[in-house]
Amino acid sequence: MGVPKFYRWISERYPCLSEVVKEHKIPEFDNLYLDMNGIIHQCSHPNDEDVHFRISDEKIFADIFHYLEVLFRIIKPRKVFFMAVDGVAPRAKMNQQRGRRFRSAKEAEEKIKKALEKGEVLPTEARFDSNCITPGTDFMARLQEQLKYFVHNKISTDKLWQNVNVYLSGHETPGEGEHKIMEFIRSENAKPNHDPNTRHCLYGLDADLMMLGLTSHEPNFSLLREEVRFGGKKSQKRITAPEETTFHLLHLSLMREYIDYEFSELKYQMGSDYDLERIIDDWILMGFLVGNDFIPHLPHFHINHDALPLLYKTYISVLPSLGGYLNENGHLNLRNFEKYLEKLSEFDREHFSEVFVDLKWFESKVGNKYLNECAGLVAEEEAAAKGSKKSEDADLRLAALVSSGKKAGEGKEALGDDEEEEDDLFETEFRQYKRTYYMTKMGVDVVSDEFLAEQARCYVEGIQWILHYYYHGVQSWSWYYPYHYAPFLSDIKNISGLKLTFDLGKPFMPFQQLLAVLPAASKVLLPECYRDLMTSTNSPIIEYYPLDFKTDLNGKQQEWEAVVLIPFIDERCLLAAMEPFNHKLTNEEKARNRHSECDLYSYDGDLDFTYNSSLPHLFPSIINCHVKKVSIPMDTWKVPPGHIYKRADRSALYFCGFPTLHHIKHKFYKKKSGVVVFQQSSRGENMMLELLPSQDGETVCEDVAAQVLGKPVFVNWPHLEEARIIAVSDGETRFALEEPSGVQQVYDRSCSPPPSKVSHLSDKEQKEWVKDVQGITEQ
Description:
Strand order of the largest sheet: 1-7-6-5-2-3-4-12-15
Low-confidence stretches: 368-380, 386-416
Number of strands: 24
Radius of gyration: 30 Å
Mean pLDDT: 86
Distance between the termini: 32 Å
Structural class: alpha+beta
Shape: globular
């Protein structure tokens, strides 16, 4: 699940979360999990801006194999290596997949058109259609076969792979990759003999992996991903070779401590009732309110407009009075959630008060006491672009729009009059402002109480579905949020008595999902018998495949964040339309249109057989294969929704090389410090960590040198990187080890002190020393 801009915001807020991966300088891990679709996309279409780019399937397969080898070599898992490819997704996810695939097809067509208009000559080979990275396509079936070959080859020939259990959950196993991984982790956690010190590493590109990882409440959990570079040009060449890629580890052990700091104010208010694990659960829930792949963001609620700090501040003010938490192990406490939203809904009025100021200014410009729907929309636009001056161009645009608005609103009664109190006028225009939103965004003629109640129910139902999905797995394959837009916070009320239940149903078959999410431009990815359903004017579902469609930024800044305004698929209509053609599928197509189990592979020296390659010219057959395969039934890892996860006994934990803030005394505070993250200065508040001075009094350089020279220590707090001290200096004098060239030794002081020499720093060296110290202090 993607949460746009979340990863960057979190990394800026908590600057020490991540560390650059350096060989032999990261923690050891037991289990490595790969959310494979990011790797598949990276290796198949690294730069969509290059319309000349062509690549063969064989090259894609080889590059994917290489990427997997590099990631395995970096992490070196001790027990489990889990590769999860996206299978058929829940219906709630398909709406987002559908919008994304329609947009990518349209963008590709536009880029090709522009290139041809410029006179560019494009290759005659067909371009790679990234929409083929969807369960059930011929490409995914061939990739699955090659992944099986790859696993057999590595386990048979590579000793590092022979000590681990290798799981391959392919596109035929239903579920999103990261959620299949979490299902496995939940089932392991639920076992009576689960080791709380298990060390997890999850590779993936989606920002929500932070939330998913935290739902496990596992103390030793890190996320691996490529370095993110923001602000670069689209045409800039992306690094695709894993050897040239800088990888980062984001440590959830630190994230847990940062969350503890974020809500530390609650410790003093709640005393013994303060529970970090429950705070983390509520933090995950709050992250859903800025929008994700399953529900849209709340109106005007944007991460880059400080939505997250507002959520946290409101939570701190409300929680002590609730008598409990919002998220109870994946179950929404509706009473507490309603009280939280009630307080949070003050944001709607605060935001509109800014719009209202612009409305009054506009009123003074045009001489009208009330602005109709059209003018209200213009004022909203102006408020969204706050900070900009009310230029002549803006005045002309507003005047033109309100002129058209007058025509649209002809005959309507003006709301309010000169004698009306300003508070009443504010409330009247606030209601009209929201009414305009629902009428223009959702196309309703009447915004009734029943309509608003339905909006509130759907939204809360969506939050509960996502909570279930994160904590318990899919609770309904068929549920989805039926609107492109979310209601206002102030309209989500009277929810405490709702009864939220879900019918589990069944996942779509692969071809059903293909027809549900692909645009007509990608129809060749479907079996031939279904293709006319996308293009024929006689098709009963032709309305679901518009060749052109609108997008709506809806307060966002980037086109890729825009709402794709295409109709939602009607499941019954879709399946009914497919039924007459199902018998025309070939045997090969029928084999692709199925669900299957996850496979577990392990080394077995007693087995020795030949594994034949389907691409022998590229990947030779494995003459001596020593691999045992066990199929895992699809429901094996299901954990009941009522299961309460065992809390780790903190006294039984050790840090295993994982970073923690607790090793050095420090204080923390939030401040806009412009910390450089991802090559740019951060704009919001940073959680600053300031080391507290030692209580041991003034230290003498010579005494310190006698204690630590030649000793191993951990540096770069809070990340635990082992180092050996070779010199100590106070800016004037330098004590350094005196060893023969090429000798690196750890000295035991009980035997004899290490050989050392003393020197005095020159003026130039003293200046460099001061510069180095300042650099360390600023970090």
